[in-house]
Amino acid sequence: MPKRKRAAQASPQADSEEETAKTAPELKDIDDVAPLKDDFKVPYADKTIICEKHGSQDIATSLIFTHGAGGGLGATAVQDFAKGFAAVAPVICFKGNMNLKSRVKMFHAVVENQGPADALGGRSMGARAAVMAALELEKPPAALLLISYPLTAGGKEQKRQPEGREQILMDLPEATDVLFVSGDQDSQCDLELLAETRGKMKAKKWLVEVAGADHGMNVKPKSAIQSIGLKTGQIAAEWLSSRDKSKQYCRILWEDEEIAVACGGWQEGVADEEAQRSQQDEGENG
């Protein structure tokens, strides 16, 4: 697949009026998203890596993204996120195996073949691989998009593995911008532990908290899962295009009465995280 020209990127510092003007329309279902997708393969050792480019084929990719250990490219969480992201900017998703080191090498192969993107990202194990690849690349990405980052291992015990999961986040340089998208019911990413880890990171970090979402970004009712996935992708792409360093927290949730995803907008600081949770929960229960 030929490389494409790079679209002009907005400054990371944008005022609220500019952000409002650039915000994409609400994505309620898959029909709201342009179905542009190009399938291709990238050479990798004596094999190939299966890739999908979602979005415009005429401009360079903004994000190179990979799935978790429990699902492939066709996983609902991956497809919905990619389509929501592609409504704003192009994204390449690639298929990997369950070996973490191999997945990191695949990031290298896709970047070498397609050229560097503004960001690397992934969900679950794929998010860990994105962090490790960013630490190894000679020209690291400006940003990382980490969906359902697994701070603890799966299984009943949910063991912490600080060296392989927390330390690599702390090793990221100050120049890297990191977006976490995590559900508040994610058994592998306790938000208190994530807050503790974020506090130790040198890199600048943002958090999108998804109310009621588990590690697979599943929510109730089931009919809301697709809309939540599309919205997280849309928010991530808008953040990558234009982000405010002073506003680092956003919370989204499904509103049954409105039959839509509600987003509280970007807020400042830990205190605002608590305030936004309280306001949205009161609105939902009121």
Summarize the structure.
With 286 residues, this protein is of the alpha/beta class. It has helices spanning 16-22, 76-86, 100-114, 125-136, 162-170, 191-200, 225-241, 269-285; strands spanning 37-44, 47-54, 63-66, 91-94, 119-123, 143-147, 177-183, 204-210, 249-255, 260-263. It has a ten-stranded mixed beta sheet with strand order 1-2-4-3-5-6-7-8-9-10, with helices on both faces.
Key words describing this protein structure:
ten-stranded mixed beta sheet, Rossmann fold, alpha/beta, globular, 8 helices, 21% strand
Please give the CATH architecture: 3-Layer(aba) Sandwich
Task: Give, in order, the helices and strands.
Answer: HEEEHEHEHEHEHEHEEH
- Low-pLDDT residue spans: 4-24
Structural class: alpha/beta
Pfam families: Abhydrolase_11
Biased composition (Basic and acidic residues): 19-30
Region (Disordered): 1-30
Domain KANL3/Tex30 alpha/beta hydrolase-like: 109-224
General description of the model:
The chain has one domain: Alpha/Beta hydrolase fold, catalytic domain (Rossmann fold, 3-Layer(aba) Sandwich). It has 286 residues and is of the alpha/beta class. Helix 2 (76-86) crosses helix 7 (225-241) and helix 3 (100-114) crosses helix 4. It has a ten-stranded mixed β-sheet with strand order 1-2-4-3-5-6-7-8-9-10, sandwiched between helices. Helix content is 34%, strand content 21%.
